[in-house]
Amino acid sequence: MAIEICGGNRIQGEIEIQGSKNAVLPMMAAALLCDGETVIRHCPDITDVHAMAGVIRGIGGKVTFQKGELKIFSGSVESSSVEEKAVKEIRASVLLLGAMLSRFGTVQIQYPGGCSIGSRPIDLHLKAFRTLGIKTREGEEYIECREEKNFPFTGKEIREKRVSLAFPSVGATENVLLLAVKREGITILENAAREPEIVELCHFLCDMGARIEGAGTKEIRIEGVKKLHPVMWYLSSDRIALFSYSMLVAGCGGDAFFRTRENIPLAEEEVLLRIGCLIEKEEKGIHIRKEGPIGAIPYLCTKPYPGFPTDGQSPLMAVLSRANGVSTIEEGIFENRLRMISQLKKMGADIDTVSNRARITGVTKLHGAKVYADDLRSGAGLLIAAAMAEGETVVEQEEYIYRGYEKVEKTLRELGVIVR
Ligand code: UD1
Fold this sequence. Notes:
By secondary structure, this protein is an alpha/beta fold. It has helices spanning 21-30, 47-58, 96-104, 123-131, 170-180, 196-207, 239-252, 266-275, 313-320, 341-346, 376-388, 399-402, 408-414, and strands spanning 3-6, 11-16, 37-41, 62-66, 69-73, 81-82, 106-110, 134-138, 142-147, 160-164, 186-190, 211-213, 219-223, 232-234, 254-259, 278-282, 285-290, 300-301, 326-330, 350-354, 357-361, 370-372, 392-396, 418-419. The termini are close together.
């Protein structure tokens, strides 16, 4: 199977923006920090959530998912060793390190997988753990971490431990949070990631009874508590899905209404405006309209939040391939995220790359071709390019797209795209 799109239609329609993938995955790990049933509503029906559910079931948790409601009962989790094959399929399984360390004081897990968008090491996670007195061992297949009982903390350190990340890694920030919320004393995390998903995780943990200050800033202060309790949570909308569908409007022209409670982050809004979109915020969502030529973007580099997100880069690149002028995009986070270019070129795009920089000369039209996704966001970029192109495009390896986009064919049809 592949996704077949007959391009050229204008976009017209209204959709609900799915719940946030990158927010729900760490929350699923956080559910292991208490013993009752955690309920997450507005949860996206995507394969990454199902893979994470499989991993949690593998260690004894009970997980159900019905009509957007995810329930995790963690009282039955009893194994500190994660053997599940699914660990290899999903990068977010690395977050079980912090959660299981918190629960059992020890964890053994296979190396996590995920999209092949670069080397994706976990050195920052492990270094932060070691600073906090965790012993780590990286075997050939497994990582083992455990609390070191007699770690020589002295004086003030017994109450207050500082850990500083060399780079504001999203996953490492989440892992430190998961480890620290139930640890004795105060943990101060410096150079923390500031992504909205980090802020949402902190709010979620605070609802469970955690004490966290500084979420959304570079310094997060966590005061350990003895016990956390389960909560019911309504998940925010996925800002990357919102940006991706906005790019569909930008690329094809048209008018769409996106039901969401959140705003478009500033960096994405700026890009939409530069391309020439009209954005109208309403009580129940966001209206995006686009007429006329696509504006080029002379230079843009992907950065940690509040910079422009690497996850939005491929959808943007697809749109800029038909811009009026030359654009330059530098991928500043994941080295393999320019691989989609070889596929866009099959569709007639004019793009040159030097190292992690792409120079995109807008062409007047794209044409249909047989292409393949090699990660989640390149898949989204190719779907957008397919909808913009003349003729039929077949997007293969669509399983990458299902990792993060809920009912993508149905959603595209609701927006007026012809999906066969
Ligand atoms: C998360 C998101 C992903 C997003 C990324 C950057 C989830 C489930 N995934 O991934 O969609 O693209 O943030 O916004 O939330 N790095 C190291 N050592 C480490 C950790 C990271 O060198 O120990 C490097 C990575 O290789 C990469 C950069 O830091 O170059 C960013 O990684 P990180 O912020 O950790 O991303 P993830 O948490 O994997």
